[in-house]
Amino acid sequence: MGSHRRHPLLVPALLCAFTMLLVRPTAALAEDGDFGPDAGTDSGLASEVTQLYADAAVVTQRYEAGRRESEAEGARARRYEELLARERRDIAVLHADLGRIARSQYRSGGGLPLTAQMLFANNPEQLMRGQRAVWQADLALNNAIGKSRRAEARLAADEAKAAAQWRKLEQRNSEIAELKRSIEAKLEEARWTLQGRAEASVAAGSCRGAVRLDQPDPGTMPEYVTPVETYELSASFGSGGDRWANGHTGQDFAVPIGTPVRAVGAGTVVSVSCGGAFGIEIVIEHPGGYYTQYAHLAAVTVDQGQRVSPGQWIAQTGTTGNSTGPHLHFEVRVTPELGSGVDPVAWLTARGVQL
Question: Whole-structure pTM over 0.70, yes or no?
Answer without folding.
Answer: no
